């Protein structure tokens, strides 16, 4: 979830507790429990905690969803307001084999009434839209409109390869210019087409506007699509839906068919600035591990350079179990910083880092009798400290809580933006304001320095080890972070743990310029080459001409099987 920056998870169970889908009676009670556990686990990933569930639009299947319990755990209900009708409507079925649209608005309105009866908040509801049609073979070409009989689903098409289904690209490929001549049924908010004995309905910008007017009248949260893979290769219907909703999707608006990759996928145009995860380049603390276990593979422990050191390595047991500790480690190939636990003073620990001691990376009261915590300080020109250079903790123990009414980061013109405030500061500190009130210590960021990495995607982790648990309030938190995250601060107050410490965990990202000075010229040159495969001799240096003329053609545009594509002639798929 964190690696690819997903918003959350969507669950599609079709369908619990129904005989025709091999459901079981206990599914009714188990689904809310299942969703509760998923939501609990997702909360451990901070900003990646969204949870949605697809639910049917028909009462026959929806009756087996315990909506009153489910709505406690999900952020959105994605209502599958399509497939109301299809080839399964046989003469023996309750509805009979009558032609009808699988996305008609009349039945969609009835479906939402089922939700309102269960006190579902409309803002939690997304209406489903379809990028495909259900097709039918009419019993008689003399009666081929809604209400007439049909014998079977429409013939299978080459791509979808299923009776009674036609994707939007197949509709366009089969009907060509006729796609715009469908008959608009404003009541049902659909368009109908017929050719030979085949009858179908589909949606486009005209019908979506009608459906979306209804969603706005009901104050719904939004709309979802099944499925974008059934759009044309140039994103025709995605662009129409963007226009109908007013939602601006960068992926849709920048789609360029002449520069897309094999298969017609959506791509983003190049940007001058992009972010990349560089967490693996930074020195950081491990999670709590058995004493002596040290660093992970391909990492090495940083030595403690203190003149009166308790340990040879930079270790810290704050928030860990009795037989555990953390180790400050750097990735192989990265120069180690100079680090030390400062001012132990034979147990009478003195807080803070000295003026030339570098950056504060942790604090601990281990073996301290003064009531103050020792501070772990690091310095050096290594890139392993790049992210730490961008942050500064407010003052030092115990005068380290901001006064009521003061802005958290107005005390230093360079570090002017708040990242986080913690009751325990960098680890094990006690902070008070000028009035003697216990308070949180701010960690402030230098946002002006864009050349070095910064912390991002941060959140408090109560206990990553526990994962899905219903007893987190009575459990012991071990201040651990998910793999790849960096521990920035600790907090033993105001968390959901019965005892133990929360950890503030962050990714490390850097902004880099991925466009060289000739990037624009190169893009223009490639586009010109695609249209006319010759190399111009003007404007470009011999080096540039040499690069382009010697470049292998298979680096230009390869299809999924490795064949060279003619990008100007690719058909919709």
UniProtKB/TrEMBL annotation:
Which catalysed reactions does the entry list for this protein?
Random endo-hydrolysis of N-acetyl-beta-D-glucosaminide (1->4)-beta-linkages in chitin and chitodextrins
Q: Which keywords does the record carry?
A: Carbohydrate metabolism, Chitin degradation, Glycosidase, Hydrolase, Polysaccharide degradation, Secreted
Q: Does the keyword Secreted apply?
A: yes
Main localization of the protein described in the UniProt heading: secreted
MF term (GO), any: chitin binding
> Where does this polypeptide localize?
Secreted
The residues covered by the GH18 domain are: 1-248
Q: Name one GO cellular component term.
A: extracellular region
> What family classification does the UniProt entry report for this protein?
Belongs to the glycosyl hydrolase 18 family. Chitinase class V subfamily.
List the protein's name.
chitinase
Record organism: Gibberella nygamai
């Amino acid at each position: 979830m964190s690696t690819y920056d997903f918003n959350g998870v969507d669950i599609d169970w079709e369908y619990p507790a129904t005989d025709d889908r091999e459901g079981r009676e206990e599914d009714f009670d188990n689904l809310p429990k299942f969703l509760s556990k998923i939501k609990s686990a997702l909360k451990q990933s901070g900003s990646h905690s969204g949870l949605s569930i697809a639910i049917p639009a028909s009462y026959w299947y929806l009756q087996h969803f315990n909506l009153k319990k489910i709505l406690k755990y999900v952020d959105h209900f994605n209502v599958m307001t399509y497939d109301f009708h299809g080839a399964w409507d046989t003469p023996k079925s309750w509805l009979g084999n009558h032609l009808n649209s699988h996305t008609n608005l009349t039945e969609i309105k009835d479906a939402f009434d089922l939700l309102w009866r269960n006190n579902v908040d409309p803002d939690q509801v997304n209406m489903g839209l379809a990028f495909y049609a259900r097709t039918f073979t009419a019993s008689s070409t003399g009666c081929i409109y809604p209400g007439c009989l049909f014998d079977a689903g429409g013939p299978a098409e080459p791509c979808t390869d299923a009776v009674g289904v036609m994707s939007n690209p197949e509709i366009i490929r089969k009907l060509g210019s006729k796609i715009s001549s469908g008959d608009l049924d404003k009541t049902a908010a659909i368009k109908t087409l017929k050719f030979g004995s085949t009858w179908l309905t589909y949606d486009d910008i005209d019908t979506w506007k009608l459906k979306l007017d209804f969603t706005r009248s009901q104050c719904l949260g939004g709309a979802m699509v099944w499925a974008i893979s059934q759009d044309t290769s140039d994103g025709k219907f995605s662009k129409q839906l963007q226009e109908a909703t007013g939602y601006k999707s960068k992926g849709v608006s920048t789609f360029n068919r002449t520069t897309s990759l094999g298969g017609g996928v959506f791509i983003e145009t190049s940007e001058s600035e992009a972010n990349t995860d560089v967490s693996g380049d930074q020195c950081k603390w491990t999670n709590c591990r058995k004493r002596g276990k040290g660093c992970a593979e391909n990492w090495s422990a940083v030595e403690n350079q203190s003149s009166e050191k308790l340990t040879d390595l930079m270790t810290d047991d704050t928030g860990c179990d009795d037989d555990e500790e953390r180790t400050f480690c750097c990735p192989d190939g990265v120069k180690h910083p100079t680090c030390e636990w400062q001012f132990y003073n034979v147990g009478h620990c003195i807080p803070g880092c000295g003026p030339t001691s570098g950056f504060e990376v942790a604090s601990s009261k281990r073996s301290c009798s003064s009531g103050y915590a020792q501070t772990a300080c690091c310095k050096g020109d290594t890139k392993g400290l790049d992210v730490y250079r961008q942050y500064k903790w407010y003052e030092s123990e115990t005068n380290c809580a901001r006064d009521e009414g003061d802005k958290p980061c107005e005390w230093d013109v360079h570090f002017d933006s708040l990242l986080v405030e913690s009751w325990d500061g960098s680890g094990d500190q006690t902070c008070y304001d000028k009035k003697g009130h216990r308070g949180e210590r701010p960690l402030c960021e230098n946002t002006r320095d864009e050349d070095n990495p910064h912390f991002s995607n941060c959140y408090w982790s109560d206990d990553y080890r526990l994962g899905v648990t219903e007893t987190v309030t009575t459990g012991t938190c071990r201040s651990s972070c998910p793999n790849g995250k960096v521990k920035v601060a600790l907090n033993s107050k105001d968390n959901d743990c019965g005892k133990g410490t929360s950890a503030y965990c962050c990714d490390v990202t850097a902004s880099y310029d991925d466009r060289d000075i000739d990037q624009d010229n190169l893009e223009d040159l490639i586009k010109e080459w695609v249209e006319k495969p010759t190399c111009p001799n003007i404007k470009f240096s011999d080096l540039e001409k040499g690069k382009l003329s010697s470049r292998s053609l298979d680096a230009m545009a390869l299809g999924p099987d490795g064949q060279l594509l003619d990008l100007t002639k690719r058909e919709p798929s």
